[in-house]
Write a structure and sequence with these properties.
NTF2_dom; 123 residues; 22% helix; six-stranded mixed β-sheet; NTF2-like_dom_sf; Nuclear Transport Factor 2, Chain: A; protein transport; alpha+beta; 2 helices
């Protein structure tokens, strides 16, 4: 398993799903997963899906600038750090953001998001 290839594939899938079918992200999380979105913590797959669905915009497009990853611990997890911009529908200027994912392997051979931290980057 090439961690960089896994991270790239995960990032492409995550943001494509976020931009087209946000509710579809729920299956990437589990009950022990935690999201910190702009400082607000949410735990559990259903609560995270509800939080993402409640964001005050319906349409957006993520443009990814960088993806960095590192293996994490003996269980086969990985930390993925993403930076990029977020274009909201009807807005002229994109917003810069950073997001960190801690991915953990599943018994089925895929990964789920254990930790997810999102921040807008204000200049």
């Amino acid at each position: 398993m090439d961690p960089d290839a896994v991270a790239k594939a995960f990032v492409e899938h995550y943001y494509r799903t976020f931009d087209s079918n946000r509710a579809g992200l729920a299956n990437l999380y589990q009950d022990g997963s935690m999201l910190t979105f702009e400082g607000a913590k949410t735990q559990g797959a259903q609560a995270i899906a509800a939080k993402l669905a409640s964001l005050p915009f319906q349409q957006c497009m993520h443009n990814i600038s960088t993806v960095d990853c590192q293996p994490s611990g003996p269980a086969g997890g990985m930390v993925v750090f993403v930076s990029g911009s977020l274009q909201l529908a009807g807005e002229q200027h994109p917003l810069k953001f950073s997001q960190m994912f801690h991915l953990m392997p599943t018994p089925q051979g895929s990964f789920y998001v254990l930790n997810d931290i999102f921040r807008l980057n204000y200049a």
